[in-house]
Design goal:
- This protein is of the alpha/beta class.
- It has one domain: Divalent-metal-dependent TIM barrel enzymes (TIM Barrel), CATH 3.20.20.
- It has 13 helices and ten strands.
- The protein has an eight-stranded parallel β-barrel with strand order 1-2-3-4-5-6-7-10, surrounded by five helices.
- Helix 6 packs parallel to helix 7 and helix 10 packs parallel to helix 11.
Length: 349
């Protein structure tokens, strides 16, 4: 495992040091991070198209990040990935995710978003990255708790269309040698293990269809987030360290009752302030040989973001496990290696 790293999306803004990539890198380095996950939706922070077209630009960016003592863990296209598949019902809310050239044309969003992902594949290759963070988008989310019941074949058709849109993107990332890591997240058609399995089947088991594991979204759905690692560890190639808590009441539960984040039974917290057992998570990742980054994603309805960022690097570092290269009982090894004799068997048995 590599880390600690920090996702910059929740910190980027118009005031220094959060208005430029190099000053954000310096800020992150001073907090103890060694990696940054970089959002690509704002060309002022990172010009995705230029990065796809110019290796020199990527070398310049990487050099400026390295000057601060950091490296890029992954690029992120969460906002663009959302628009690969966006149901028209959500168009007013998602419009801000699209470039101004297509913002008023929801029917053009998917084509634009696909091109953004193709840029991301080339940019990731230019930067020497092997994983990419994104969302799947959603055509079916409005039917997640169906009333009236779903028509026969609706889910199959929805996933067939999602696969049709993503297959050429996955192929482009495969050519670039980069895994596409879908954040398993409510609001996306890939929101749990069952929906991820359905998608993988629809893209014929594509090797680049992978997972960004964020336990907070699994806890708030009341999934077993540790068992999720045991089931899907071979596909988990990215990791957001984000905490959450779920406190159901007689008034509200998983759906939240349309309340603000601070009043919902399920809410995100800074790492260590919620209910997630990160010792268990880091142990499972060590057991299964996870070699990607541990990236802080700060989303908390209580704590100030800069305090969460300051606490995040030591939290991750203290949980990372340096795996052993010897057995704990090697000191008692006897050197005996006559296995048949130890079993009480003669050579002619």
């Amino acid at each position: 495992m590599q880390g600690p790293a920090i996702f910059l999306a929740q910190f980027a803004g118009s005031a220094p040091p959060f208005d430029r990539l190099d000053t954000m890198a310096q800020w992150a380095a001073e907090l103890g991070y060694i990696g940054i996950q970089v959002p690509t939706s704002d060309p002022k922070l990172f010009d995705l198209q230029l990065a796809a077209e110019s290796r020199a630009y990527c070398d310049e960016i990487a050099g400026r990040i390295a000057a601060a003592g950091l490296q890029i863990s992954e690029l992120s296209t969460h906002l663009q990935g959302q628009l690969v598949a966006a149901h028209p019902a959500y168009a007013p809310q998602f419009a801000a995710f699209a470039d101004t050239s297509v913002r008023a044309q929801p029917e053009a969003w998917s084509k634009w978003a696909k091109q953004q992902l193709l840029y991301a594949a080339k940019a990731s290759a230019h930067l020497g990255l092997n994983a990419h963070a994104t969302f799947s988008g959603a055509l079916l989310w409005h039917t997640v708790y169906p009333w009236p019941q779903r028509p026969d074949g609706l889910v199959a058709e929805g996933f067939a269309e999602l696969a049709r849109r993503w297959r050429p993107i996955l192929d482009a990332f495969d050519a670039a040698g980069v895994d596409v890591c879908y954040e398993i997240h409510p609001g996306e058609d890939l929101h749990d293990g069952a929906s991820f399995e359905r998608f993988v089947a629809a893209v014929d088991g594509h090797a680049r269809a992978c997972i960004l594991y964020d336990p907070s979204h699994l806890l708030l759905q009341q999934l077993d987030y540790a068992a999720f690692i045991e089931l899907y560890h071979e596909r988990i190639k990215a990791f957001h360290v984000k905490d959450a808590e779920f406190r159901p009441s007689g008034r509200a539960g998983v759906y939240g009752g349309y309340q603000s984040w601070i009043d919902r039974p399920g809410r995100f917290r800074s790492p260590g302030d919620g209910q997630i057992d990160f010792k268990r998570i880091f142990s499972l990742f060590a057991q299964y040989g996870y070699a990607g980054w541990a990236v802080l994603e700060w989303e908390c309805c209580l704590k100030h973001p800069e305090d969460g960022a300051r606490e995040g690097a030591p939290f991750i570092r203290e949980h990372m496990i340096r795996t052993t290269d010897q057995q704990f009982d090697d000191f008692a090894a006897t050197g005996a290696n006559d296995n048949r004799r130890i079993l009480g068997l003669a050579d002619d048995d």
